[in-house]
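Following up on my earlier thread - several people asked me to post the actual chain instead of describing it. Fair enough. Here it is, all 404 residues.
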Amino acid sequence: MSEEDRLSAIHEVLQKYQKKLAERTNHHMGYPYNLDFDFGALEGLNKFSINNLGDPFIESNYGVHSREFEVGVLNWFARLWEIEQEEYWGYITNCGTEGNLHGILVGRENHPDGILYASRETHYSVFKAARMYRMDAEKVDTLESGEIDYEDLKARLAANSARPAIINVNIGTTVKGAVDDLDRVLDILTETGYTEDRFYIHCDGALFGMMMPFIKEAPMVSFKKPIGSVSVSGHKFVGAPVPCGVTITRMRYVMALSSDVEYLNSRDATIMGSRNGHAPIYLWYTLTLKGYEGIRQDVERCMRNAHILKVMLEQCGIKTMLNDLSNTVVFERPREEAFVRKWQLACEGDIAHVVVMPNITIDKLEEFVQDYVNSRARVSIAAAKRIASEARAAEASEGSDAEC
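Reply from S.P.:
Thanks for posting it. Predicted structure:
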């Protein structure tokens, strides 16, 4: 094959793949990713290998980095979650799971004999952390909404009061979008005799931790309360072409994890070694371009459109659930698997959900609902035809027996 033919073949493969991505993006409803972004202004950076090794606040010998952008993003989130710059430490992670792994690790390092408490509807990465770190873990029951069962949590804390507690608080569960009540958890810790030096709280805010500060009258996730860490995914609500996230903890807690690395001429308290240096630039670009007010408008539109989807589905006779503090609309699991795959729905048991993100318009919701109604009709008609066919077969069999 000539060089020209090889390049032509490569181009054809990439064109087909791009077309596939465009179609899949157009029918993306079940997972919490904001696909409404344009980083054309940053394309020139793709020719650089940008790597944020080690501590984002300490210069290392590696010079091709984006630490100044990373620190800018971290300061943005520090203001959002109300902690002074000199009191926090954090970094841009490779995903939300890494943020959970880091938060739980910081808790474990500060309380080596602590027990991890998390609800049954917690993201799987939290229990993965317990296995990785060889921690004792308690799976706490949940309410129908997906929120943690506070009475069960209280009973488990009381039963293990001799050991410190490391608690994962969900700011939006994976399937139902439920938000655990942080203030109630803090009250339960007080009631069961846990002083602040005997517990550590990690807030998993993968999606909704970014949204809740912009919702009027929503309870605040704030470092003014005695929490240990907060993590969110960057590619979810903000949107990015690569998975990424943000984790922030208190400086005094992370010191138990931090160590000098001579090879880097820096300190490191991160989970990973090499970290994507492009991700902080994507986040910085969007946050700077939109500002707090632009993010607020995105949040309000998502919450409004989630309610619209709920009403549309109910008008079609489809049972739904939408928590007050959520943009995740839960409904009956579609019985047609082709429909589930087409719209890339996340399913669990007999339920499925749509996560209404900034890229999902009212027109898209209308298209989805119409397609869902058609899917239900196809399933119902197929079932009716099957029953009729079975009835005809039985009738024919009875007629044949009568002739004999």
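The two ends are 73 Å apart (CA to CA). That should answer part of your original question.
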